[in-house]
From TrEMBL:
GO terms for biological process: proteolysis. Pfam families: Peptidase_S8. Belongs to the peptidase S8 family. It is an enzyme of class 3 (hydrolase). The lineage of its organism: Eukaryota, Sar, Stramenopiles, Ochrophyta, PX clade. Its EC number is 3.4.21.62. Residues 6-157 form the Peptidase S8/S53 domain. This is subtilisin. It catalyses: Hydrolysis of proteins with broad specificity for peptide bonds, and a preference for a large uncharged residue in P1. Hydrolyzes peptide amides. SUPFAM superfamilies: Subtilisin-like (SSF52743). It comes from the Eukaryota. The keyword Protease applies. GO terms for molecular function: serine-type endopeptidase activity.
Length: 169
């Protein structure tokens, strides 16, 4: 699929046990993510290692002196994402209340990060951008991960929206 014209292959990254150690690497390749020469960039998509190995352990993360989150450790390694209708079974069963958000992981969580940065690039440029040029600009808006340069796991690196600010056209 990623070998098709104007299709961008995105690999997903995420931490493992961030709830226990906030200094952990946030950019570990997610185990569900495909790799290969077609990988162009990576983006946060969450990690599923803890969910599959240690489902019920609780982690406490202090957000401030007044607020501490006590959640299953698996929640800290995934992405809080928009999902579902208010009456969907998943959030009702999982969170016991109607919500349009859920803790999820996947390349479907990573791809919107890249789409958002692409939108920022188009907005900054002020006019449409040809797909090949947009891909080149996206590569400039990454932080290199893994071996130096483009690699089969992270492509050109993890997408970084902050780099759009200094992007030159």
């Amino acid at each position: 699929m990623a070998d098709l014209p104007h299709v961008l292959a995105v690999s997903a990254t995420g931490p493992v046990y961030w709830g226990k150690d906030q200094s952990t690497n946030l950019d570990k390749l997610a185990p569900y993510s495909n790799t290969g020469a077609a990988a162009m960039v990576s983006a946060p998509g969450g990690n599923t290692v803890v969910r599959t190995k240690d489902y019920n352990t609780i982690c406490s993360v202090e957000l401030s002196k007044r607020v501490t989150l006590n959640l299953p450790c698996r929640h800290f390694d995934v992405v809080l994402s928009a999902c579902c209708s208010r009456k969907a079974v998943y959030p009702l069963r999982t969170y016991f209340l109607p919500t349009r958000y859920a803790w999820l992981a996947g390349t479907s969580m990573a791809a919107p990060h890249v789409a958002g940065v692409a939108a920022l690039i188009v907005a900054k440029r002020g006019r449409p951008v040809a797909p090949d040029k947009l891909f080149a600009y996206l590569k400039q808006c990454t932080n290199d991960l893994g071996p130096k340069g483009k690699d089969d796991k992270f492509g050109s690196g993890r997408i970084n929206a902050g780099k759009v600010v200094s992007l030159k056209f």
